[in-house]
Specification:
Oligomer: heterotetramer
Strand order of the largest sheet of chain B: 1-2-3
CATH architecture of chain B: Alpha-Beta Complex
CATH class of the largest domain in chain A: Alpha Beta
Distance between the termini of chain A: 46 Å
Number of helices of chain B: 4
Structural class of chain B: alpha+beta
Strand content of chain B: 5-15%
Distance between the termini of chain B: 43 Å
CATH superfamily of the largest domain in chain A: Type I PLP-dependent aspartate aminotransferase-like (Major domain)
CATH topology of the largest domain in chain A: Aspartate Aminotransferase, domain 2
Shape of chain A: globular
Bound molecules: pyridoxal-5'-phosphate
Largest sheet of chain B: 3 strands, antiparallel
Number of strands of chain B: 3
Strand order of the largest sheet of chain A: 4-10-9-8-7-5-6
Radius of gyration of chain A: 22 Å
Number of strands of chain A: 17
Number of domains of chain B: 1
Largest sheet of chain A: 7 strands, mixed
CATH architecture of the largest domain in chain A: 3-Layer(aba) Sandwich
CATH class of chain B: Alpha Beta
Largest interface: A-C, 94 and 94 residues
Order of helices and strands of chain B: HEEEHHH
């Protein structure tokens, strides 16, 4: 029965805005950051207006309510992710910090000269740079799983790649190609090889029902602003034993059990990894975001995106034929609603600039995946990415904007 | 909910006249417990005999009325019991204290619902009101967590 | 002419709330976190409702507006702090992260076995624990500046303490005692001894006009939520040369110039230290907070707090005599509006619990300063802290609540 | 503000027919420049003679119409000039591009206000419209930053 997108659109105030003399905003950049429903914005406003106080500390009414609001949200987000307990969920400021947390704690205490970490050629810089930093310090080796021509992981040589590796770190879904990776299979391969696995769920959690307990990862990270939540909030999931065994990351208030002039001891998980005043309002906002997503239904959202991606691939191909290249898997069912495109010879920056004149919002650039761009033979692509609030009219507007760009640069 | 629910007379009584206060001399086992949120520190000293019986235990350190009275009641309840019975008490008490955290989506104590419903917590029931004040739960459980640690160390 | 506090109160929605059957909220916990004016809450709401998009990336209208909103706020916050350029200002999630950033980058690359870092006995855990962590890794020595009986830094032995030290790290104002430290003098002492200085401005920036260029520190940190801003945002100031010379902290998107499978290079400051999607809405909110503070006037705020602290010290002493101890300097002019109190024999937790029944919000605990608490001979204190929205009626309410607690626990 | 302000005819002309395109063979000095935001990479090769005169320079690599045309105009303007004159051009161009960032509170180019107002940027004036599109400023200045780096390296 599908989503009622015209009703959903009304929940997102930015989508009611116009730009450039009355053009409605056609927002096709959700892989970059998602729009926020009014309920999320209001949850944070209400927090600040009624119970703003620091958490875990005050014995007064609004401080207790703030603590309940924050820890209640932790519980709901943990449930949304399929975690067994809210103690498995550490809040960070974004997915990037989550991965750096793992690299700095588990990584720096477990990896030594000559150890190998396996990445893939489709990773976001957030997965690459932290391991480059550990590599520079510890002398570890980075190995790269290559890609097939249609943008899937090429697992032909996987046994050799994971042989003796200590960690396999990969994205559940590519933010450039849309490719949905076989997460369970890869975590199983890692486990069989005696390696840990870190799954970057930044593009997965917003778009597909996620159950960390079933995916089999040792570490799972995500970011709030791509899943209808606010900026300034992300998370790391791991099992309690894993978190318990890790040394702390940042030091300061909230994460300690005792501090003397001689040293300190850490408090229990997850707070052990949450130094300083937490992003309280942002956690409350993320709680409201998962409430919204749950109410719509993650399976319904996925179904909608599969259909809409199919519509886009079909109609854009019909309209533009060989003038348009769309990277990544051809089959909507094996990909998310992320389409990196190349149109004629028009540079993505110029392309998206013209599109903007039509109200159509696409991102141009390397999408923080320069090794992948190099493999694709491009410096940059233009990327259209979908979410629950997009519909066929948005795809048609994308096509019209492409046409306009083609005319503008038709020398 | 008035304050009377939190500060029952029996709680104030244990606070004013704490039972088993002080420290046992060595070779009694000694464990320090910290409430990371408020800074309270308790010192638990305990002697368990060869049969696993808690022969004696004492509580020292500082704390608020809730942590002190809870620890005082704990010592009274546990003294003379076997370590196994002590653990049952601990579980029962923490279940009572966790009703609130369960509402918050934390199901860590899910399995504790099967705790013996007939176990009589006695005076300790007076601490029920604490669950309405989540920050104070850490106060009420400070002594109990310290006891758990002591029993773990003794049986290790 | 003083502040018009009754008008100011109207700007802060939480202060219009009631608790416990109609008691108005008397908020005396601003050293913990401040309340937010409606203008700050609305600035963030408006951001999400009208221009929400990722920054530095999109070529479309709202993305450019989001970038302008964020970088414009950086400029205004930098000006508010007296920085010479917005490139001197790195955004973090809170003061704790800022200090950890310095410890992990400057600290880990400049400190070696046997080096000394000088702290004070009145530091917040955010200043202590990061250096304990470096000490554990690098074998550095921590030295502690002691306190006088009235809670000031005891500088008698300072020459010996800083002799050969690499860093002096201290708070500009104590969050427990209210003591305002002689920042310029201390940074000068550090410089003369050849040491760097790190000033924790978390309690200074919200309450006193701050000019980093004049204070003479090498590093200066602060946190947004204590200065009318949102949670999830803080900052680090340092001169461009200092920041340029530091290795990066977290790795990922935004902080790179180039990434290959072989390595990476970093982009220019301040973005080099801002990996991942930044707390965009929070930066916008912090910009609105400094606008509000500037409009009221930092000197006026300071003047108000000095007067109100004087009123509090005077009237509370009159009412309770020796039953009440207020830690820290006796003179309002040499302290901020932070009063750590001990009342009769009532434990701070019990004290603040009763106060809450009267709508009076105080924090009880170690205030993340356990070494200081130990020096004071207490596990915990109850702390009342003031801000621009407090008035004499709030102090009178504090006195009434103390009286009520005394009666409740009068056995 | 319409697109015509950004995409002036002269810009599109330099984009369609870039001047001084390609790479000079060694021993020309070679520098790579990156636009970290979009991934564009340019390669600048340059020969400066003993008198400090830019004898030749070429631009290779990929980029959008703004970065390519700006770099093309730059090569045309700088070729045959002294290194000192080249630096003046760079300053003047960056001043033009920084009007916007100054509004944002970034006063890094404050001192540039004293730049010679008579310096004629010629065709480059056409790029003025770019300041309305802050993200594109990085495109327009890519070639220039790379040239600065080359001159710095050559004089080091
Ligand atoms: C003096 C001082 N430094 C540092 C901090 C840490 O600030 P945050 O928790 O926002 O990182 C605080 C407040 O908690 C403080 O009072
Ligand atoms: C696959 C992937 N991983 C990680 C990230 C980093 O997320 P954030 O910038 O919120 O840390 C992103 C988005 O930018 C992403 O698409």
């Amino acid at each position: 029965m599908g989503l009622n997108v015209s009703e959903i659109k009304k929940d997102f105030p930015v989508l009611g805005q116009t730009v450039h003399d009355g053009r409605r905003i056609v927002y096709l950049d959700s892989a970059n950051t998602s729009q926020k429903p009014q309920s999320v914005i209001d949850a944070m406003g209400r927090y600040y207006e009624t119970i703003n106080a620091n958490v875990h500390r005050g014995t007064y009414k609004i401080a207790e309510e703030a603590t309940n609001a924050m820890e209640g949200a932790r519980g709901r987000v943990a449930t949304f992710l399929g975690a067994n307990s809210s103690r498995e969920l550490v809040f960070t400021k974004n997915a990037t910090e989550s991965i750096n947390l793992v690299a700095n704690t588990w990584g720096r205490s477990n990896l030594n000269e000559g150890d190998a970490v396996v990445l893939t050629m489709m990773e976001h810089h957030a997965t690459i740079v932290p391991w480059h930093m550990v590599a520079a310090e510890k002398g570890i080796e980075l190995r790269w799983i290559p890609l097939t021509a249609d943008g899937q992981l090429d697992l032909t040589d996987i046994d050799r790649l994971v042989d003796g590796a200590k960690l396999v770190s990969f994205t559940a879904m590519s933010n450039v190609l849309g490719t949905i990776n076989p997460v369970e299979r890869l975590t199983e391969i890692a486990r069989s090889a005696g390696a840990m696995s870190l799954v970057d769920g930044s593009q997965h959690v917003p778009h597909l029902a996620t159950n960390v307990a079933e995916l089999g990862a040792d570490f799972f990270v995500f970011t709030g602003h791509k899943m209808l939540g606010p900026t300034g909030i992300g998370g790391l999931w791991a099992q309690e034993e894993t978190l318990d065994a890790m040394p702390p990351f940042l030091g300061g208030g909230e994460m300690i059990l005792n501090v003397t002039t001689e040293g300190f001891t850490t408090t229990e998980i997850p707070w052990k990894f949450e130094a300083g005043t937490p992003p309280i309002a942002e956690i409350v906002g993320l709680g409201a975001a998962v409430d919204y997503l749950t109410a719509v239904g993650m399976d319904e959202i996925r179904q909608h995106e599969v259909e809409l991606t199919g519509y886009a691939l079909r109609t854009l191909h019909d309209r533009f034929g060989d003038d348009l290249t769309i990277h990544g898997p051809a089959e909507p069912a094996s990909r998310g609603g992320v389409m990196s495109i190349q149109f004629k010879d028009i540079h993505p920056h110029d392309l998206t600039q013209i599109m903007d004149q039509n109200g159509v919002c696409l991102r141009a650039g390397h999408h923080c995946a320069k090794p992948l761009m190099k493999a694709l033979g491009a410096n940059a692509t233009a990327r259209a990415s979908l979410y629950l609030y997009n519909d066929e009219a948005d795809i048609d507007a994308l096509g019209d904007a492409l046409e306009a760009s083609g005319e503008f640069f038709d020398f | 909910m008035g304050l009377e629910d939190l500060y029952r007379e029996i709680i104030l009584d244990h606070y004013r006249s704490p039972r088993n206060r002080g420290e046992l001399p060595p070779p009694a086992h000694r464990v320090e417990g910290f409430n990371p949120l408020c800074g309270d520190e308790v010192v638990l000293t305990i002697e368990v005999d060869d049969e696993g019986m808690v022969k004696d235990l004492k509580i020292g350190g500082q704390g608020c009325s809730i942590s002190q009275s809870s620890a005082s009641m704990m010592t009274a309840a546990i003294k003379g019991k076997s370590a196994a019975e002590a653990r049952e008490f601990i579980e029962a008490f923490k279940t009572m204290m966790s009703i609130h955290s369960k509402e918050l989506g934390d199901d860590e104590h899910g399995e504790l619902d099967q705790i013996d419903p007939d176990l009589d917590l006695g005076d300790l029931e007076a601490l029920k009101g604490v669950v309405q004040y989540p920050v104070r739960i850490k106060c009420a459980t400070l002594g109990w967590n310290t006891l758990t640690q002591a029993l773990d160390e003794l049986s290790a």
